């Protein structure tokens, strides 16, 4: 009920503040094709390639670890998991086309995971990981569980070496990585082989055009997965109860903040059209707003958004780990304050930016059941 | 009946106590109704409100609902919970109760007292869905569903378990039970003059003759039993609207859902106020006002069933368009149950359901017969057709209900 009420209030607030820019709308002559080309060729496809490489590295380290479990090989596989998890944060927002058709985000990174299902799957051997019911028992979160569910490194190593079922456990770790590689490869290759041209070619401005759809996906990601999933839900913003067990990378325990910041930085870079090398950039939502010369209360909307990105980033960066913030404070005021700065971007996107670009928001807050 | 967007205005009107003339021969005195803020009624300092039987049945139905996706059980337990046989529940309070869900399914005085064949058919249908959940869905838990094959489907981060035609029998059962138990008992039994005025109820109520060993008159109790099917498991049953929708998996939940649609906000308050006012009218022995309030409740609860049927039909369209089958079939399984429940609604203008059993059958046949694989083949046009047929009988539009 609180969640619904919160969403309703949010909905009303959002709808009650129409874009209050005072200038008359410019005619929209922005070249959407150039924008789509920059997104596809310099951002989306290169990042999928990077995730693919990172997962290959993870696979190599996992093979070494399961062949010869040791402190050294455990640390290596953990580090490669962290590296891949961070790069994944840069692709999680691209849920369109082949990623959308394959439910990539939910297949690779559903959390919290279900430890009971994971342990059952380990014992059952060769379970079908493509089943929707196994989404809570695979992906990055499950590797987090497998590599960190015991406090000491020795205990983890024992699970993969001396304890009963260690061979099955090793096999399951490899099966989970296989599943992730298969999905990323599928999505990457479909982008390269066919979807890139379809995406770029659909350059109009209508509800089904690439820019309109992708901007919706981008805002949806920002609102639901970044803001709510990584911060709001663990903080108890919607339920009224703190839920630290819903943090990303819960078993590792300290990574959730870094993963959030990587995701926030990724959405900022995407807004500015920054390329995968993070030194050059191309046409972007920012340059689109500049072309439209969109003002909000007399200030440049694109700059307002970037300023808010910077403020939100700084506020989150100043926090302790998310787990410590939530568990060590009766009321986690600092993290709630940072969350509010993250939240302030939502209306700038969802009301002001889309209004300037004449894009309709196509997702609504479903009422569940 | 018009839906207003000014619930506060309505609430204000309903909150003031009002006067009306009695209709007996010496009708010269005005009756002053004392409508309380909360649903509290007393006699000699003792509460006269009791609906424990309704609370019991809702609790039974909630536990049965929890079991519908327990893949470790067979249909025997589900059927036993439905009829409360062989100690099927986790709590001894429920096991020891002489009540059951089944005994009050399709059992209202108005619709079924002389229609026992239909009553039996409906009970059989609900039982068949429980059996099919266990026999057509549980064995295929780890199968990927496809046209003609039972199994699981993704619906966002939820998993849906469907039969070969795409139906979730747990949804068919629970949404149909809202009609067959809660709506039928409330609208067509306890709010019906046939029950409220049965036997000596009026004379006893007029003379404050209480039910044996009780604090209430029989008529007061009948009215409260209607109330219990909506609010019987509320955290605060006397003031249920501050947490409307949270009390159960059945009618209370969907009053909350419709209330949260801004096109219909105020409906929860209108229902609650009608219950309070009608109960106050019984205390004041004014049966015209009582029946007017019953008609308001019948109208609004019927609206809820119609609104949710259309809502799910419309919601399913986007899932079908994007081939998100799990999302679409979940919506359509809920729609199926709410359509089934339409036969238990009551239009106060006719005292008949908005759709009778035969008409409901036709709508459900339409939903399932676009191809041999049921929901896998259903077209968006078919969904529009069914939505239009339903909305045409009510005062809401497809646009209002559909989002």
Automatic annotation (TrEMBL), chain A:
Residues 45-343 form the Imelysin-like domain. It comes from the Bacteria. Keywords: Signal. The keyword Signal applies. It is found in: Cell envelope. It comes from Gangjinia marincola. This is Imelysin-like domain-containing protein. CDD domains: Imelysin-like_IPPA. The lineage of its organism: Bacteria, Pseudomonadati, Bacteroidota, Flavobacteriia, Flavobacteriales. Gene3D superfamilies: M75 peptidase, HXXE motif.
Automatic annotation (TrEMBL), chain B:
Residues 1-22 form the signal peptide. Keywords: Signal. Pfam families: DUF4856 (PF16148). The keyword Signal applies. It comes from the Bacteria. InterPro entries: DUF4856. This is DUF4856 domain-containing protein. It comes from Gangjinia marincola.
């Amino acid at each position: 009920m609180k969640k619904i009420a919160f969403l309703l209030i949010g909905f009303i607030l959002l709808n009650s503040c129409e874009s209050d820019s005072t200038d008359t709308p410019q005619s929209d002559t922005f070249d959407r094709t150039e924008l789509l080309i920059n997104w596809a060729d310099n951002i989306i496809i290169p990042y999928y390639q990077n995730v693919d490489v990172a997962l290959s590295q993870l696979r190599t380290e996992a093979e070494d670890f399961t062949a010869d479990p040791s402190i050294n090989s455990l640390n290596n596989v953990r580090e490669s998991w962290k590296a891949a998890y961070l790069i994944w944060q840069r692709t999680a927002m691209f849920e369109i086309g082949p990623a959308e058709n394959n439910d990539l985000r939910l297949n690779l990174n559903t959390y919290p995971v279900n430890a009971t299902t994971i342990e059952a799957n380990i014992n059952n051997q060769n379970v079908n990981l493509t089943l929707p019911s196994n989404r809570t028992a695979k992906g990055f979160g499950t590797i987090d569980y497998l590599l960190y569910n015991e406090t000491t490194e020795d205990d983890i190593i024992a699970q993969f070496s001396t304890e009963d079922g260690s061979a099955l456990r090793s096999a399951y770790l490899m099966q989970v990585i296989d599943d992730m590689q298969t999905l990323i490869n599928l999505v990457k290759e479909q982008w390269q082989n066919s979807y890139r041209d379809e995406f770029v070619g659909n350059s109009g401005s209508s509800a089904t055009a690439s820019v309109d759809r992708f901007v919706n996906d981008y805002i949806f990601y920002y609102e639901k997965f970044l803001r709510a999933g990584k911060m709001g839900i663990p903080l108890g913003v919607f339920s009224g109860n703190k839920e630290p067990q819903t943090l990303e990378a819960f078993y590792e325990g300290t990574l959730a903040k870094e993963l959030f910041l990587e995701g926030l930085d990724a959405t900022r870079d995407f807004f500015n059209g920054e390329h995968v090398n993070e030194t050059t950039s191309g046409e972007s939502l920012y340059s689109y707003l500049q072309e439209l010369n969109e003002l909000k209360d007399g200030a440049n909307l694109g700059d307002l958004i970037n300023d808010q990105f910077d403020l939100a980033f700084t506020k989150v960066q100043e926090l302790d780990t998310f787990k410590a913030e939530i568990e060590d404070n009766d009321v986690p005021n600092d993290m709630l304050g940072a969350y509010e700065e993250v939240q302030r971007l939502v209306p700038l996107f969802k009301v002001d930016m889309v209004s300037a670009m004449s894009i309709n928001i196509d997702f609504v807050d479903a009422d569940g059941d | 009946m018009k839906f207003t967007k000014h619930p506060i205005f309505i609430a204000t009107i309903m909150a003031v106590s009002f006067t009306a003339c009695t209709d007996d021969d010496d009708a010269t005195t005005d009756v002053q109704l004392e409508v309380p803020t909360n649903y509290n009624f007393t006699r000699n300092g003792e509460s006269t409100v009791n609906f424990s039987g309704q609370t019991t049945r809702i609790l039974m139905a909630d536990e049965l609902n929890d079991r519908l996706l327990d893949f470790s059980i067979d249909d025997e337990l589900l059927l036993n919970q439905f009829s409360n046989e062989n100690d099927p529940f986790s709590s001894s309070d429920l096991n020891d109760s002489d009540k059951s869900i089944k005994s009050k399914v399709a059992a209202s005085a108005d619709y079924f007292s002389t229609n026992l064949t239909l009553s039996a058919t409906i009970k059989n249908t609900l039982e068949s869905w429980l059996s099919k959940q266990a026999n057509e869905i549980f064995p295929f838990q780890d199968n990927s569903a496809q046209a003609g094959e039972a199994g699981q489907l993704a619906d966002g981060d939820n998993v849906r378990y469907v039969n070969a035609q795409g139906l979730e029998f747990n949804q068919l059962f629970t949404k149909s039970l809202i009609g067959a138990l809660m709506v039928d008992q409330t609208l067509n039994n306890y709010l019906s003059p046939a029950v409220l005025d049965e036997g000596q109820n009026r004379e006893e109520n007029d003379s404050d003759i209480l039910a044996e060993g009780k604090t209430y008159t029989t008529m007061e109790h009948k009215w409260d039993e209607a109330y219990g099917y909506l609010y019987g498991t509320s955290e605060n049953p006397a003031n249920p609207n501050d947490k409307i929708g949270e009390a159960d998996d059945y009618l209370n939940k969907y009053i909350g859902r419709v209330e949260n649609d801004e096109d219909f906000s105020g409906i929860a308050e209108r229902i609650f106020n009608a219950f309070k006012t009608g109960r106050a009218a019984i205390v004041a022995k004014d049966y015209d006002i009582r029946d007017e309030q019953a008609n308001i409740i019948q109208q609004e609860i019927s609206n809820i069933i119609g609104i949710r049927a259309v809502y799910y039909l419309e919601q399913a369209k986007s899932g079908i368009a994007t081939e998100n089958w799990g999302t679409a079939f979940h919506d359509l399984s809920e729609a199926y149950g709410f359509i089934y429940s339409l036969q238990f609604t009551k239009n106060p203008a006719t005292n008949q359901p908005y759709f009778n059993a035969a008409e409901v059958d036709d709508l459900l046949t339409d939903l399932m017969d676009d191809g041999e694989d049921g929901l896998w083949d259903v077209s968006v046009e078919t969904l529009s057709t069914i939505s239009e047929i339903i909305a045409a009988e009510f005062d809401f539009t497809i646009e209002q209900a559909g989002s």
